[in-house]
């Protein structure tokens, strides 16, 4: 079995959510670690996937909003410093892989199936093999206790409950 780790310099963990029913706020996390253990990364043979995202590293390019998102109203980053994912099963269908596992967010664990796309492999200028993987999926934030909101005078709410998560990851073989 080989362990592959995400290259944080060439990877991104991002999200978007409806704001005031008329626009989308985008953001991401600066600190994260993804790890895949498998016999063959191209086929995910006997694979296990683990992901860890540091909640305090949220960045929406607005300091006061980021502080609010780290607070008890949302991530409660002091009490829940990370979001994790641990795979249980992985199946292949064409170029995509269905990965079912446990997501822990805000102290709540739920089973979720995520579709991953394997984008291929290449050699970097230093002779290292790199692999690309991406995914987009929806999380209902309220299922994880992230229920803060405000009703709008014009109807609707300030923050949508569906959050679109987007990951674009580059992996290399783990070296000690």
TrEMBL record:
Cross-referenced Gene3D superfamilies: Lipid/polyisoprenoid-binding, YceI-like (2.40.128.110)
Transmembrane residue ranges: none
Pfam families: YceI
Domain Lipid/polyisoprenoid-binding YceI-like: 3-172
Annotated InterPro entries: Lipid/polyisoprenoid-bd_YceI, TTHA0802/YceI-like_sf
Family label: Belongs to the UPF0312 family.
PANTHER family per record: PROTEIN YCEI
UniProt protein name: YceI family protein
